[in-house]
Amino acid sequence: MEGLKSRALHHLSHTHKVLALSSLHHFYEHLLQCCTSLTTLKLIHSSLSTRGFLLHTPHFLARLIILYSKLGDLHSARTLFDHRHHHHHGHTQAPNSFLCNTMLRAYANAGRSYEAIDLYIYMQRMGVGINNFTYPFVLKVCASELGAVFGKVVHGQVVRTGFGSDLFVEAALVDMYAKCGVIGDSHEVFDRMLIRDVVCWTAMITLYEQAERPLEALMLFRKMQEEGFLGDEITAISVASAVGQLGDGRMAISVHGYAVLNGFIGDVSVGNSIVGMYAKCGNVERARLVFDRMEERDGISWNSMLSGYTQNGRPTDALSLFNQMQASECDPNPVTALIMVSACSYLGSKHLGRKLHNFVISSKMDIDTTLRNAIMDMYMKCGDLDTAVEMFNNCEPGKRDVSSWNVLISGYGVHGHGKEALELFSRMQVEGVKPNDITFTSILSACSHVGLIDEGRKCFADMTKLSVRPEMKHYACMVDMLGRAGFLNEAFSLIKKIPSRPSDEVWGALLLACRIHGNTELGEIAANNLFQLEPEHTGYYVLMSNIYAASNKWKEVEMVRQNMKSRGLKKPAAFSVIEFGTEVHGFHTADQSSPYYREVYRKVESLAIEMKMVGYVPDLSCVLHDVEPEDKEHLLNYHSEKLAVAFGIMKMDQGMPIQVTKNLRVCSDCHWAFKFISSIYGRKIIVRDANRFHHFQGGRCSCGDYW
DNA sequence: CTAGGGTTAG
């Protein structure tokens, strides 16, 4: 009896112990799951260690190693790892595969490639079993840093050790080759796979999408479905991105349908990518619809929608959505700031730009060099050179980079301050900043805007000395510069010297020069190249027809117009904005939606009469429409930039400059008219067009009619 | 107990 009792007691206490132990394990597991700081982790670590759990429960050891590496303390992770297998007898003892894999994972996730490879080699040397779990980590490291050469070596080892047909390892190989840019090898691995799943199909689709080969990505997507795989959220994201690259609105709708039908749309990331896809296809309305219907929105959702508006030339919509964002529970981040800064640049509104800058400062978000450069650029594009320069000067030299210099140089360039641009260009070199390709486009276009031909030629010659290889965009700048200055033949022979096929920007620059100098023959050569290269680009048709119109070749004008019409091309809508106090007013061509339109219309009509009295003759060459001359003249009055300027003359105080931003190039008649207006009214008129700034004062323009 | 595919901005 007594014996039985004692045995029962013993049994009971044993169960108790086991129970306690298991709940302790759960307790620690819970602690580790909640642990987000190094200090807490160290406390848990020492507690686990005193209980002896680390010696007997490899699970906790692994958890600690992973957590340490996640929180950035790889040293502690490694110490733990080393300690474990030095423990028993004080001499090195081969660690087991599991632990090594864990440590490898820690290195791979932290991007510590060389330590990871070191460990991998150590494993091979010590004869630690390398298994199917090991390779994905090693291949990840190859993908991110070491490259395809090393990856190929590992691939060989995969095959030799007999893991060549493990689904996970194969998928990792596909991804590795893809990230190293060896698409052929990826495809080869993929083709040899006997069993495939969603993950490796998606990896293949993503690979083509990332390589900007959207058609092939979509073909794979179809093939995947034919083989009976539905795909999942991540597939949907990749496919949406591919369709966004194609810009095909109808396909966008069907991908959207795919996501809805399969229930992927509830996923925030899927929603985000659909929003971005629609925006890239030019369908902001649908983008907004999806955005509004999302159950859950994160920072990326807002940023996608905001940049969608900006990309589609709708900065005012971006700004009002930005206000909504601030009222929501989602805080703007530095990327948001970057998008909004570019919206303000586009709009050309000094006031809104400054307000945004103040917001960025007060929100205490991290202003890195990229964001600071964007803000400087915004000030330049809003006509506030002083603030941009001040920001540049107040910035510690360590926080400036080439782009900061580039922003200033190109900013001075678009304002027609060629000398200052050149000074900055040499100053940056004195201060030891190496000019890059963008520096040269900035300086060359600055020279071009002011007609500093010799300086421009010298900079172009200096490029190779400073080991920057001339690219197509630099040739385009040179053609632009030479062409504007009237050296059309020199420009044309430079084009012939370009080692590869001249791009549309190069021919476009020549075409523009031909319009300025009324050269029909060279213009036709340029245009014919352009119509082949970019048949959908409206601007080139418009330019060519302007050239014909200027030399009264109306039959040819009609031909170009018909050509445009048959391709279904329309002149993009012109849009001009003017800042008035804290408001921004926008005008389309012949706009009747503005609350002020009646008075503005009366003003442009009276302006036309006033100008004619002092010698203005309407320049009809920029009217494409097939109408009577009187009607053409009438149409000219309602150009968006004229409406905006008339609004400014009416509403703004005499001392205030009138600043207007137009989305396209300012038309030649408006340019001429503004000279008259600036002189009649004694006002400063500043117009920013798609190319540069025009400062009108006393009957002259800062561009010297050189634009 | 450990593993593979991802969207926004520039």
From TrEMBL:
PPR repeat residue intervals: 96-130, 197-231, 267-297, 298-332, 401-435, 436-470
GO terms assigned for molecular function: RNA binding; zinc ion binding
Keyword Protease listed: no
PROSITE patterns attached to this UniProt entry: PPR
Alphabetical list of InterPro entries matching this protein: DYW_dom, E_motif, PPR_At4g14850-like_plant, PPR_rpt, TPR-like_helical_dom_sf
Keywords annotated in UniProt: Repeat, Transit peptide
GO term, biological process aspect, one: RNA modification
Domain DYW, chain residue ranges per copy: 615-707
Family statement drawn from the similarity comment of this UniProt entry: Belongs to the PPR family. PCMP-H subfamily.
Database matches in NCBIfam families: PPR
Record protein name field: DYW domain-containing protein
Organism name: Vitis rotundifolia (Muscadine grape)
Upper taxonomic lineage: Eukaryota, Viridiplantae, Streptophyta, Embryophyta, Tracheophyta
